């Protein structure tokens, strides 16, 4: 009797992932309206239109491909992750597509809404009382069941091929080729794992572009202070309100050497910005998109002050429907002690005058 070739399953699994990528094609690059006399174009790469609704769709696909080509994921392998957010949703989607079990370790305080998204795609949640233990518990589970720990916070920067393979950076530059400023002055992204900023930072260097990469960082996150001080062990011990970005520690996948600037952004500014986005473009996005916009506005104001023309690119990370009970809920805003009015006024002044008040 012929022994089945385990690589045959792997080859078919990779084909299935590539077919999914071909079906969903690429995401749109929208224009955010700015006064034409500024001579600056702002683009929004809309990652919310992926099948699982967020930028993390790309990361999940890359992480699973990385496990497949390294021989770590085989037929029947249980996939394990430490995530209660969009990454886990996307990983559950791909695991279901490949007929694999998926378990994600989540804090017991994780919202029922997030759990429903993960379970919709056949994923299971394993709860821990102490959120700081999600990494160690994911490692333990993977060892116990001979599974594979996807480990987004360590592997994100190496799982994505920064040279091409239709990564997000290659996609952005291809879509800009016919624009008046095809090589952007700035690309602005948040950092959750750090994988997206590493991909952009490496790609622009590889392609010898003059483009600079800025990371925007919400309150309670470790990236700004860690990058500024050069401390990769910097921690805050506090969670971010802005889901999907910001971490209580500098994660292994955050590569500070390929980043040109890190901009701290107040949470109230992020949440004010998504309201402006919805009013001016009808795009409905989560708070991390607002953080991106605030950073982009600051850099555009700096360009205007210096008499520069050019383009800036940032991301719509996910859709706003996931945040009706939080980021778009006035009662939740009040419960967090946030006042959006001053930040909204600052954004409105910028869009009218091109000046950004840093007060």
Automatic annotation (TrEMBL):
Keywords recorded for this protein, A-Z: Cytoplasm, Lyase, Pyridoxal phosphate
Recorded hits in Pfam families, A to Z, give: PALP
Annotated InterPro entries: Cds1, Cys_Synth/Cystath_Beta-Synth, TrpB-like_PALP, TrpB-like_PALP_sf
**Which GO molecular function terms does the record list?**
lyase activity; pyridoxal phosphate binding
* One Gene Ontology cellular component annotation held by this UniProt entry: cytoplasm
Top-rank taxon:
Bacteria
Catalytic activity, reaction form = L-cysteine + H2O = hydrogen sulfide + pyruvate + NH4(+) + H(+)
Q: What class of enzyme is it?
A: lyase
Q: What is its EC number?
A: 4.4.1.1
Stretches assigned to the Tryptophan synthase beta chain-like PALP domain: 33-318
Needed co-factor(s): pyridoxal 5'-phosphate
Q: At what positions is N6-(pyridoxal phosphate)lysine found?
A: 56
HAMAP family (UniProt xref): Cds1 (MF_00868)
Q: Which family does it belong to?
A: Belongs to the cysteine synthase/cystathionine beta-synthase family. Cds1 subfamily.
Q: What does this protein do?
A: A cysteine desulfhydrase that generates hydrogen sulfide, H(2)S. The H(2)S produced by this enzyme modulates the balance between respiration and glycolysis, and contributes to redox homeostasis. Probably eliminates toxic levels of Cys (which can induce oxidative stress).
Q: What is this protein called?
A: L-cysteine desulfhydrase Cds1
Please state the gene responsible for encoding this protein.
Answer: cds1
């Amino acid at each position: 009797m012929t022994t089945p070739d385990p690589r045959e399953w792997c080859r078919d699994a990779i084909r299935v992932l590539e077919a999914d990528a071909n079906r969903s094609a690429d995401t749109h690059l929208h224009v955010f309206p700015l006064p034409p006399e500024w001579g600056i174009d702002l683009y929004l790469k809309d990652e919310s239109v992926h099948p699982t609704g967020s930028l993390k769709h790309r990361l999940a696909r890359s992480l699973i491909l990385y496990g497949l080509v390294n021989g770590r994921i085989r037929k029947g392998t249980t996939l394990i992750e430490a995530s209660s957010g969009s990454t886990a949703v996307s990983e559950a989607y791909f695991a279901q597509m490949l007929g694999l079990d998926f378990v994600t370790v989540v804090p017991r305080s994780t919202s029922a809404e997030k759990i429903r998204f993960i379970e919709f795609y056949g994923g299971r949640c394993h709860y821990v009382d102490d959120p700081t233990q999600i990494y160690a518990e994911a490692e333990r589970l993977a060892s116990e069941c001979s599974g594979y720990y996807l480990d987004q916070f360590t592997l994100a920067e190496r799982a994505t091929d920064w040279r091409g393979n239709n990564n997000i950076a290659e996609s952005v530059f291809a879509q800009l080729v016919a624009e008046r400023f095809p090589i952007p002055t700035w690309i602005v992204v948040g950092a959750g794992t750090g994988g997206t900023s590493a991909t952009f930072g490496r790609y622009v260097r590889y392609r010898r572009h003059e483009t600079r990469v800025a990371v925007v960082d919400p309150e309670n996150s470790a990236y700004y202070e860690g990058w500024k001080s050069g401390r990769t062990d910097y921690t805050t011990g506090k969670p971010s309100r802005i889901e999907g970005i910001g971490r209580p520690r500098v994660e292994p996948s955050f590569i500070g050497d390929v980043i040109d600037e890190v901009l701290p952004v107040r949470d109230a500014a992020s949440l004010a910005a998504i309201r402006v986005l919805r009013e001016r473009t009808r795009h409905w996005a989560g708070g991390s998109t607002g953080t991106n916009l605030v950073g982009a506005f600051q850099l555009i104001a700096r360009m205007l002050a210096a008499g520069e023309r050019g383009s800036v690119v940032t991301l719509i990370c996910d859709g706003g429907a996931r945040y009706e009970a939080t980021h778009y809920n006035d009662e939740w805003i009040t419960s967090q002690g946030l006042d959006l009015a001053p930040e909204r006024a600052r954004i409105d002044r910028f869009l009218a005058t091109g000046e950004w008040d840093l007060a």
